[in-house]
Structures are given as C-alpha cells and as structure tokens.
Amino acid sequence: MDPAVARKVLWAVSRLAPPTGDASAHLPEPLVERELEVLRLVAHGLTKPEIAGRLHLAEGTVKNYVSSIL
To answer: Where are the alpha helices (DSSP H) in the chain?
Structure first.
C-alpha cells in the first residue's frame, strides 16, 4: 500500500465515531491494537518484512494483518 494512501486510511480510521443505535450494524469492526500498529508502520512506509522484523512477527502474519485491515 502506498504510504500516502495508508496515512489517509489511518486518519479515516482514527476519526470513526463510536457506533450508536442501529446504524452500528452497518459499520465494520474496529481495528484491534495490533492491526493499528501494523497500519501505523505501513503509513510510515515500512515494507512487510520491515514490519515483521520490528514487531517480531512472521511476514505471513503481517500479510494477514494487512489483509484484515483492508
């Protein structure tokens, strides 16, 4: 993911209001803390192997987090 796009996604996710009423049924699940960590690193331009090294994860795990985020 291009870092500029990732920054926009991170900004949009951070601005989501907490769900209220029946409208929450149509909102996606909020990102878990580890997904947010991965998203922040993607937004800073790190590659999947770099993220894996920094977070002490397998590269496949990082790929799974990125897929989940998308």
So the answer is: 3-14, 33-43, 48-55, 59-69
